Each structure stands twice: as C-alpha cells, then as structure tokens.
C-alpha cells in the first residue's frame, strides 16, 4: 500500500528488481604484450609511457611518452605515429609520422625497437 495515497502497489516492481537499461559500450582494441599483459584501447586513445598503457609500457624507456594514437573509423582500427624519436612498426613496416594506417587482428606492432604488441580484436 502506498503511504501517500493508500493505493495498492503490490504489482509494482521494486527498483532493484527492474532490469537495468542496456549500457552503451564503445568498441575496444586489445594490445597484448609479449609478457601476456593487455592494454585496452578506445577510439582516440594515445598509448605511451605516460598515456594509456603506461602500467605496461613505462619500463621501456625508448618508447615515447605519447607514442601512438588509435582511432576507429567505419568499423576499422587505425594507428598513427605521433612523431616519435624511435619509430613505430606494423609487421616490420615503419610508419610515416602522422599517417594513419589500418590495423587488423594478429598484426604485430613494435613501439621503438623495445616493445612488441599483438593486436587482438
């Protein structure tokens, strides 16, 4: 019974019993380091020693603080080198600074010459 209007509320679901509305999730890209640690990347994320993935990358001093940017466009993922000193490679092909290159699952990304990551989609 409602304490305000004295109406029957026995058929009304309690808030915690109500299903949550579906949550919108943005697509993520997983980068797996050779030690098995994962870096979770979202559209627009910058990866580096003081950026996304710092907990995995900070020990690699030749990787730039802000090394690469990942973007998602039309359902595809892209990587872009951010003018790094020690370069970025996709499957042993050096990236040109500022040029976005499409990446796919199982490709190997090398940041500097020190850190290899495998793309997991």
Automatic annotation (TrEMBL):
Coiled coil location: none
Classification via PROSITE patterns: FHA_DOMAIN
Domain FHA per the UniProt entry, residue ranges: 45-95
Pfam families tied to this protein: FHA
InterPro entries: FHA_dom (IPR000253), SMAD_FHA_dom_sf (IPR008984)
SMART domains: FHA (SM00240)
Name of the featured protein: Forkhead-associated protein
Organism: Candidatus Magnetobacterium bavaricum
